[in-house]
Amino acid sequence: YVTMVKLRPPLTTQQQIAIAIVPKFTSALSVLGSGFIIVHVLINPNRRQRVYHRILLGMGLMDVVVSVRSFLSTWPLPKGTAWGAMGTTQTCALAGFFGQGSSLAGPLYNGSLTLYYFLTIRDRKRWREEKIRAVEPWLHAVPLVVGWSTAIAGMVLKLFN
């Protein structure tokens, strides 16, 4: 997932530890927040019926994946390459795959939400829930296909090591 770059001067042990540990706190908070959004949508049948909430659900799911990847921090990296690294080349590639797919799909889902707002706020009479449902598959397909196809391409091309 991470290409080790020779830094001048090299990072101190304390800096390496900070880089490995700090993401655990921020990503844990992100998982909690996104988890709340996911549960908020899933427990209410009325919310599950609305395009807006389904887009939020997709965003939340992608954020959980990228946040779990961030929480893992240096753990998946091959042992000996960074402080806290205890993985293998395969775990590093897997972390890269999930990091790539979700970290691209998440912002693209944000774009879907923005488009949803643009259409429904700009012209409320024309873009009611029924009409927005007709374009909803695209609001999910673009983030998922673009995000995860780049992850698949990266895996096939062995870009994550």
UniProtKB/TrEMBL annotation:
**Name by which UniProt lists this protein:** G-protein coupled receptors family 1 profile domain-containing protein
Q: Which keywords describe this protein according to UniProt?
A: Membrane, Transmembrane, Transmembrane helix
Q: Which PANTHER family match?
A: G PROTEIN-COUPLED RECEPTOR 157-RELATED, TRANSMEMBRANE PROTEIN 116
Spans traversing the lipid bilayer: 17-43, 55-77, 97-118, 138-160
What GO biological process, any one, is recorded here?
adenylate cyclase-activating G protein-coupled receptor signaling pathway
Compartments where found: Membrane
Q: What is its main location?
A: membrane
Gene source species: Pseudictyota dubia
| Key word Transmembrane present | yes
- One GO CC annotation: plasma membrane
Q: Could you cite one Gene Ontology molecular function of this protein?
A: G protein-coupled receptor activity
Membrane topology summary:
Multi-pass membrane protein
